[in-house]
Amino acid sequence: MSDHKRGLILDAARVVFERDGLDGASLRAIAAQAGYTPAALYFHFDSKEALYAEVLGQSIAALKTEVDARVGAAATPQARLTAAALGFFDFYAENPRDLDLGFYLFRGGMRPHGLGRERDMALNAALESVLWPIAEAAEALGAELALARLIMADAFAHAVGVLLLLHTKRIRMFGLAPRALMERYVEAEVEKLLASRTANHADAVHANG
Amino acid sequence: MSDHKRGLILDAARVVFERDGLDGASLRAIAAQAGYTPAALYFHFDSKEALYAEVLGQSIAALKTEVDARVGAAATPQARLTAAALGFFDFYAENPRDLDLGFYLFRGGMRPHGLGRERDMALNAALESVLWPIAEAAEALGAELALARLIMADAFAHAVGVLLLLHTKRIRMFGLAPRALMERYVEAEVEKLLASRTANHADAVHANG
Amino acid sequence: MSDHKRGLILDAARVVFERDGLDGASLRAIAAQAGYTPAALYFHFDSKEALYAEVLGQSIAALKTEVDARVGAAATPQARLTAAALGFFDFYAENPRDLDLGFYLFRGGMRPHGLGRERDMALNAALESVLWPIAEAAEALGAELALARLIMADAFAHAVGVLLLLHTKRIRMFGLAPRALMERYVEAEVEKLLASRTANHADAVHANG
Amino acid sequence: MSDHKRGLILDAARVVFERDGLDGASLRAIAAQAGYTPAALYFHFDSKEALYAEVLGQSIAALKTEVDARVGAAATPQARLTAAALGFFDFYAENPRDLDLGFYLFRGGMRPHGLGRERDMALNAALESVLWPIAEAAEALGAELALARLIMADAFAHAVGVLLLLHTKRIRMFGLAPRALMERYVEAEVEKLLASRTANHADAVHANG
DNA sequence: TATGAATGAGTATTCATTCAT
DNA sequence: TATGAATGAATACTCATTCAT
User: What's the fold here for domain D1-45?
Assistant: First the structure.
């Protein structure tokens, strides 16, 4: 019962966040969309921030589901790295509103309040857990832990940058498919790792020979 | 006369944007900082957005000055590519408020908006002109025009992504220096171009031989 | 059963009134303190005001208990007058929240209001019954009924004024002990009564002699 | 011009404070009464508290004017003491709304926020300056400074207590004129002072003789 | 006897903007 | 060229109360 209503309100919130942007979304508007009085929302959510945090949390959960599914279906480490990085990219490319949702946090990050320390850390942890398969795969391909983490962060950065490009059309793309940029980036990373492994192997053989 | 006063107001706006953040900056505050009444600003600027657009325009001009200087001092194409990409990155890494200024545009759904079609196109053009040296250098290194543009867009994307990481601290960096990520990316691009040129050259020699 | 629960709610109300002040005390908070839902309180009390009236009634009952005990232990009329006046003063000096409770009635223009005519008259009657010993003692000391009543009202007024001073610290007290003010006042009244009795007696002797 | 409008708003505020009580008076209501939008008031006053503080300040200024006039017209110390104490009493007896205004502060005093430290101290100082003639007269009548101050505080307390009685009708007055209570109190104080002076004089004569 | 859910009216304050002067 | 005065819409959030269950 109550969960059902919460769900309806969350749906309404998503609609309004999409329509008015995150800054423009007022409690009044969300309540109106949900067919409620503003005061009624406070029965289900403690604050506007709590409501937003829940919407965002669901978004990240959906992202994780998608990425994990792709990674689970991949056989080799290089396939897993590719699956995680492109899975992340594809999710947001196909769900631009979830991207907006996520970017709001980064803005919040720019001014330092966020959603309150606890919520903020939980969301960060969720986001990192989505990206971990990239680091794991890199390690499986022979990278040191430090390098593996660097690769994870770098892939995240590249994905986010390309998504921004795609999303805002601020740079003319000259007909480039944005996904091609991401694929090219991932391929290059994988190749570097494989080459490095080969080199190390050769070294080892040489040393032992 | 009028230009001088416009300048004073723009300076005041920058001060307030830095002090209060972009969301927190009100016309009242900017006017007060400039020693004017809010109403007086409307004699010089059509709206708050127009004021913001002009501040942003100046920011991009400053970016261009810095990047062009670095590129001009570079001797080889690969040095120019590196200078342009890292110059872009460094400018925003060192001037985070200018980064805020830029990201602000992506708000409210992150679509180009709010500033009106004309202003928006002018800003886009200015931004592209900053990044063109990357494409030019890539061409000088033997890339087709299409690839050169792709490399330009990709470098932009990577820089933006890493800056976001740096700026928001939302992903734990494990002590990584963000600039290292950008350097690593640029080096890899340059190497790919050089390798490609060598290969092409070898092909050509082979074909001719 | 029902009375027991009423009692629990009234206890909770007292706790919340003390913790949050009278203005800050909301029905929600009282209900939460009592372990109930706000709506549940309406089964036991007609309104927030009714709840307040009952808490106030209990407060006055406690006052009466204390004053009556002191008066009962006093042997002479002058001791009874002193006991009643200082008992009244001490009760509120030691229980400032009860004083708040009483003053709250005077709010909103300080006219008897808000609680309805009936409740108001009952509270007034209860308050008067606390103070009656003063008038009785004055009569026992020879005062006419009219004067006795005047002395009662005057003592009430003085006590309330000093309590206000004590409670709000709005007038610098220069290290004065507030109770000293009240004691001084009561002593003077008693002396006036005794002097008056002596004079009357002398007159009577003279008239008869 | 501006002062005139401020005056109109202050008048409106007084009307609303009277009509709705001080707690019940909202900015909306004051604005409506003044024929303005709520936002317009913020052009003239910084906050609701500032508005109230000004209304109250004017009230205390009027009180001071009245009391000082009476004191100035009095020839002897005992006449000045009486003039100050009864002047204070009469002002509030005749202007019950000013009494409400003043009591609000005491309530604020009960919960410790008041009007902010500065405003609060200024108002306290103004109030004390009204009452100082009482202490001065007492000293002129031979009281030590400590006693003179005690008499001042005590007279204030008595006046306030009787005014409360008068104002709230919470104690049946049995046809008593409240002013009679105050007069009786003041007369007794004056007599005590005179008696004390006589006694001291006699002592002095005796000591010297 | 109690609850979960909802309401409508209310709060002070801020905002970008306008307009007569 | 600039101001003082004003507006209308907006903000998140709280309150006592009601009512179907």
Answer: Arc Repressor Mutant, subunit A (1.10.10)
